[in-house]
Each structure stands twice: as structure tokens, then as C-alpha cells.
Amino acid sequence: MKQCNKCEELKSLDEFGKEKNGKDGLNGRCKLCIAEWMKAYREANKEKCKAYREANKDKFAEKRKAYREANKEPIAEKSKAYREENKEKVAEKNKAYREANKDKIKAWREANKEEVAEKRKAYREANKEEVAEKDKAYREENKEKMEEYNKAWREANKEKIAEKDKAYREANKSKRIEELKQIIEPHTDNEWIYVLQCGLYNKIGFSNDPLRRIPEIEKETGFDVDLLYLAKANYGRTTDTETIIHHDLKHLNIPIPYKSKTVSREWFYGDLLEMVEVIGEYAEIKKVN
Fold first, then answer.
1. pLDDT (tens digit per residue) in 227-236
2. How many domains does the chain have?
3. Considering the domain boundaries, does residue 49 fall inside one?
């Protein structure tokens, strides 16, 4: 035990810092008293302390780095505990920092793209369930915002998306055809794939009576509809073929709300020739006169 020269309390030796010139190798004042003195000194000499830190940046940086390296686990545990106890405070502080340093953060990310990507990938791999839950919650809370963002992104990256989808189709065409062949022989379900046009939009669906669908869709949309193409699946069930065609044309997909308050996801906006080309990969397609 040792008595502090300042508060005069009797304390254990681990409550005193080391001092090579001390009789017992320890400071005469306890750590708590020294901390209070340093705090009062910094408050009374703010400008002086600031000037000293500015003049010794490298020295302070090296010292902090060495301390963090030597105390990784305690620092990590302490930081984790603090974040858990002060979630809202930390979130507000981080938000304020991001708002005040947008350009700085953007420049750093641009300069460290690979490092940022690797860290994100590693984090998502290590926290799959937590990330999935957070992503799901965010999408649920920001449906309209996400739809607007995705729409704007697709508009700005049309060519890039089209090229990527085309490359994917080419790489997986044989595999998909083989899968379809295993389901059922062609032309045995009496279904047709049809392409309807309504203004600038095209609907790709399937039915055993496509002509019957025209008045039904006109009633739902409130507009005239024309039948442009009919197709018979080359392989597999028509429903499976239609699903694959929709997937290959997802970059052109645009959901259309109906009068019955349902939403049809079989509508596409864009290059009709591309739609016909994709359908032709899986079905025998003919233009309706």
C-alpha cells in the first residue's frame, strides 16, 4: 500500500504510475490525482496544448499507434462496450461527421477502393445473418426510396446492365436448355408465350388462349392492347421457359399497376428486338399478322 501525496489516501500500488526517479519507482501522486491535474491544466492552457500537439503531430501519432498495437484486445473490448451502451450517441456523432466530411470521405474511398471492398466483403462474410437482417429491415423501412434509387441506377447503367445480362445468357444458355429438357417434352402443355403491346410497353406472358387475355388486360390497364408475337417453347414447360425469359430481360422489367389494385411484373420497357431475340433463344417465335 502507498499514500498519495495529493489526496493523502492510502491506495494499492497499481493505482500509482511508474516514476524512475521515485524512491520506490512509483509516482508520489496516484493516477486519479494526476489525471485530474492534467485535465485542469489542459483546460487552463488550451491554446498552449493545441500548439504543442500541432508541433508534435508525428510524435503523438507514433505514440498512439504503439499504444494501440500493444493494447489491441483491451481497446477493442472497451470500444465495443462503449458502442453498445451509447448506440444513439455514436450514431449521431458518426452521422454528423459524415455530413461534415463528405468530400474527404469520398476521396479516401476512391483512393482505397480495393481495401474498402475487401473489408466490406470480410465483414459481410463474418456477419451474414446480422447483415441480412439489417438489409431486410432497411428495405422494408425505405421501400419508396429503394425503388427510386434502383430505377435511377438502372437508367444510368442501361448499357452496362444489358451487356452483363447478354454475357450471362451466353454463358448459361446451354445449361438452361439442358435443365429445361429434363422437365418435360416440348409442346405438350398446349400453352403459348405471347408478346402484347400497350403504348411504349410490352407484356410477355403465357396462356393457352392468348386472344382471351387481350380484353382482360385492356380492362386492367384502360388502354388498347395489340398482340405482336406468339411462341412455342422449344424445351420444357412453357411456364419454366417464360420464367427464364423474364429473368434474362430483368434489366428491361417495369412493374405496371392495374385497376384492380394488383401489380403485374410481366411488363417490359425498351428494345422490342432484344425481347424477341431472347424469346427466340428458348422458343419458336412468330410475328402475328
1. 999 999 988 7
2. 1
3. no
